[in-house]
Design brief:
Elements lengths: L3 E2 L1 H11 L6 E9 L5 E9 L5 E5 L2 E5 L1 H7 L3 E7 L2 E7 L3 E4 L5 E4 L1
Parallel strand pairs: 1-6, 2-5
Antiparallel strand pairs: 2-3, 3-9, 4-5, 6-7, 8-9
């Protein structure tokens, strides 16, 4: 079980975490909504007892067990494209995604 960040996603996450307490990291959560049924939610947060925490090049990635079941083995990337810049997940557990890449349907 793992979630990984690309090199640029590590850099951008470290920029967002600058000045934050050292125990904080990037929380990745799956919530209902979006045009494909489920939506990724990224935030800066601290871990809770029930969370799973991964570390990638000094960046903590915090995930709850329910979300991890839907995004396990995903790669988080940061894209600077024509439609704006932001984090995107390459999720091998998605059967389809929406055009913006922010929501998905599980397999």
């Amino acid at each position: 079980m793992a979630i990984r960040l690309t090199d640029i996603a590590v850099r951008k996450t470290k920029e967002h975490l600058a000045g934050e307490a050292p125990e904080r990291g990037m929380r990745v959560k799956v919530v209902g909504g979006g045009c494909s049924g489920l939506h990724y939610q990224l935030s800066i947060d601290s871990s809770r007892t029930e969370d799973i925490v991964f570390e990638n090049d000094g960046v903590k990635i915090i995930v709850d067990a329910d979300s991890l079941a839907l995004i396990d083995n995903s790669i988080i990337d940061y894209n600077m494209g024509l439609h704006g810049a932001g984090f995107f997940l390459d999720n091998p557990n998605a059967s389809r995604t929406c055009g913006c890449g922010q929501s998905f349907a599980p397999k």
